[in-house]
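Student: I would love a firmer grasp of how sequence relates to backbone shape in proteins. Thank you; the sequence and its tokens follow:
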Amino acid sequence: MTGACQCVIETITRTIMTHPDSIDRIDTTAALSSPGICHPLRAWRMAQGLSLAQAADKVGTTRQVWHNWETGKRRPRPRYMARLRQVTGGKVNADVFYPETDAA
């Protein structure tokens, strides 16, 4: 199962558990086909079975900072980028946070 699928499943499960009456309103087909549904950093963390706090501890940051990276609210500073590459075995690199853009 891909990380994106796992993220969708986790979100749907959490929704059902907190709002059982919403089960018939969840559009799983649309969720699974949405591009970028799960940040690669989150997909990696989930594949490793790590909590936010455990993953953050591996690179020497806080749970909130890691969460901000996963949600795109913040980008890792260079010193954390090196740690992320090392911890993830190169599966998460700067391209995840700084994608190429077309020059206008």
